[in-house]
Amino acid sequence: MQTQGIKKIVLAYSGGLDTSAIIPWLKENYGCEVVAFVANVGQDPEDLVGVEGKALQSGASECHVVDLREEFISDYVYPVLQTGALYEGTYLLGTSMARPIIAKAQVELALKVGADAVCHGATGKGNDQVRFESTYAALAPQLKVVAPWREWDLRSREALLAYLKERNIPTTATLEKIYSRDENAWHISTEGGVLESPWNASNKDCWVWTTDPLEAPDQPEQVTVKVEKGQVVAVNGEALTPFGCLEKLNVLGAKHGVGRIDIVENRLVGMKSRGCYETPGGTIMVNALRAVEQLVLDRDSYKWREQLGLEMSYVVYDGRWFTPLRKSLQASAESLAEEVNGEVVLQLYKGQVSAIQKKSENSLYSEEFATFGEDEVYDHSHAGGFIRLYSLSSRIRALKEQK
């Protein structure tokens, strides 16, 4: 533990058990002033009620609550959507995309209040420690970093509660909480509890936002989504901000049980973890964007976009947001998205999203060429020469083997 030269620390504070204990721990072990920083990225408003008072009661000298919701969706989520990034094929990167904007705003506050260091409550087992600290390094390498979970000897929920009780610091946390959750406007994740064994099926307590698909409405519902340059700009004919579009689609998707995944993923630090993730509005957005791309992008462009998405999923998951590689991938995706404009009607039904109608002024789909009926634009005889040249290398190899 290097406490020398640290007089003021800005802590990424949530008001939960861990960060409530971190404030007094920092004061006792570093002998410094602690400024609490709370990022509003669209979590449950109840979590923000009284959060400033909580931080001050825990020993913080100040508490700053910063509203990042619009910026989070427009500047972090939407750019990633353009690339089509899905980590390991299913995860829509809800926690991963939120960390760089939180850490960036934390650094900005640290520089503003003249802090010597920044601190986070991420454990030494997870990905978030890397995401936070990579952002700190990229934006303010002069700031010292304090990570209590890698230093202190408080190793359990019981120990943290006892620590706070000894210091007469109030907390609403209890021993009964068995799940670890992360929530923002884009998604909510649930880990721990019964999910720690992959042989245990998830139960109703593992899902927070969405209706069980088995209990969702028996009648499907349709929603119309407008896309411009690879971004959702309107829902059911109403033009909205990116955050506004997401809010509206979250309500519709959650109602129909859309956006649930139960996965085991590979963490950056080398272990596997299991989680139940809910991304209702985001799942609808992804389906809408893919539907327009199917009309607009030619085969090689679509393939390249898929490759961009694969690479971007690892870049974002691994916390490399503020890097030249991320900017380069983004620039390529933005170029491809220039003509990704259109309108899609999606049907929501018992956990499923289906694009049932799609149109675009830039569509490459031609009924004249695609028809199974008689047409006057396509000469079938041309295909023979194409196939002969396309398979030429195979023909040469076979002739050589015959000799």
Automatic annotation (TrEMBL):
<feature type="binding site">
    <location>
        <position position="131"/>
    </location>
    <ligand>
        <name>L-citrulline</name>
    </ligand>
</feature>
<keyword id="KW-0963">Cytoplasm</keyword>
<feature type="binding site">
    <location>
        <position position="123"/>
    </location>
    <ligand>
        <name>L-aspartate</name>
    </ligand>
</feature>
<dbReference type="GO" id="GO:0006526">
    <property type="term" value="P:L-arginine biosynthetic process"/>
</dbReference>
<feature type="binding site">
    <location>
        <position position="91"/>
    </location>
    <ligand>
        <name>L-citrulline</name>
    </ligand>
</feature>
<feature type="binding site">
    <location>
        <position position="180"/>
    </location>
    <ligand>
        <name>L-citrulline</name>
    </ligand>
</feature>
<feature type="binding site">
    <location>
        <position position="277"/>
    </location>
    <ligand>
        <name>L-citrulline</name>
    </ligand>
</feature>
<protein>
    <recommendedName>
        <fullName>Argininosuccinate synthase</fullName>
        <ecNumber>6.3.4.5</ecNumber>
    </recommendedName>
</protein>
<keyword id="KW-0028">Amino-acid biosynthesis</keyword>
<dbReference type="Pfam" id="PF20979">
    <property type="entry name" value="Arginosuc_syn_C"/>
</dbReference>
<dbReference type="InterPro" id="IPR048267">
    <property type="entry name" value="Arginosuc_syn_N"/>
</dbReference>
<keyword id="KW-0436">Ligase</keyword>
<feature type="binding site">
    <location>
        <begin position="12"/>
        <end position="20"/>
    </location>
    <ligand>
        <name>ATP</name>
    </ligand>
</feature>
<dbReference type="InterPro" id="IPR018223">
    <property type="entry name" value="Arginosuc_synth_CS"/>
</dbReference>
<feature type="binding site">
    <location>
        <position position="128"/>
    </location>
    <ligand>
        <name>L-aspartate</name>
    </ligand>
</feature>
<dbReference type="GO" id="GO:0004055">
    <property type="term" value="F:argininosuccinate synthase activity"/>
</dbReference>
<comment type="pathway">
    <text>Amino-acid biosynthesis; L-arginine biosynthesis; L-arginine from L-ornithine and carbamoyl phosphate: step 2/3.</text>
</comment>
<comment type="subunit">
    <text>Homotetramer.</text>
</comment>
<dbReference type="Pfam" id="PF00764">
    <property type="entry name" value="Arginosuc_synth"/>
</dbReference>
<feature type="domain" description="Arginosuccinate synthase C-terminal">
    <location>
        <begin position="179"/>
        <end position="396"/>
    </location>
</feature>
<keyword id="KW-0067">ATP-binding</keyword>
<dbReference type="InterPro" id="IPR024074">
    <property type="entry name" value="AS_cat/multimer_dom_body"/>
</dbReference>
<keyword id="KW-0547">Nucleotide-binding</keyword>
<dbReference type="InterPro" id="IPR001518">
    <property type="entry name" value="Arginosuc_synth"/>
</dbReference>
<dbReference type="InterPro" id="IPR023434">
    <property type="entry name" value="Arginosuc_synth_type_1_subfam"/>
</dbReference>
<feature type="binding site">
    <location>
        <position position="127"/>
    </location>
    <ligand>
        <name>L-citrulline</name>
    </ligand>
</feature>
<dbReference type="InterPro" id="IPR048268">
    <property type="entry name" value="Arginosuc_syn_C"/>
</dbReference>
<feature type="binding site">
    <location>
        <position position="127"/>
    </location>
    <ligand>
        <name>L-aspartate</name>
    </ligand>
</feature>
<dbReference type="GO" id="GO:0005737">
    <property type="term" value="C:cytoplasm"/>
</dbReference>
<feature type="binding site">
    <location>
        <position position="121"/>
    </location>
    <ligand>
        <name>ATP</name>
    </ligand>
</feature>
<comment type="similarity">
    <text>Belongs to the argininosuccinate synthase family. Type 1 subfamily.</text>
</comment>
<dbReference type="InterPro" id="IPR014729">
    <property type="entry name" value="Rossmann-like_a/b/a_fold"/>
</dbReference>
<keyword id="KW-0055">Arginine biosynthesis</keyword>
<feature type="binding site">
    <location>
        <position position="96"/>
    </location>
    <ligand>
        <name>L-citrulline</name>
    </ligand>
</feature>
<feature type="binding site">
    <location>
        <position position="39"/>
    </location>
    <ligand>
        <name>ATP</name>
    </ligand>
</feature>
<feature type="binding site">
    <location>
        <position position="189"/>
    </location>
    <ligand>
        <name>L-citrulline</name>
    </ligand>
</feature>
<feature type="domain" description="Arginosuccinate synthase-like N-terminal">
    <location>
        <begin position="8"/>
        <end position="170"/>
    </location>
</feature>
<feature type="binding site">
    <location>
        <position position="265"/>
    </location>
    <ligand>
        <name>L-citrulline</name>
    </ligand>
</feature>
<dbReference type="GO" id="GO:0000053">
    <property type="term" value="P:argininosuccinate metabolic process"/>
</dbReference>
<dbReference type="GO" id="GO:0000050">
    <property type="term" value="P:urea cycle"/>
</dbReference>
<dbReference type="GO" id="GO:0005524">
    <property type="term" value="F:ATP binding"/>
</dbReference>
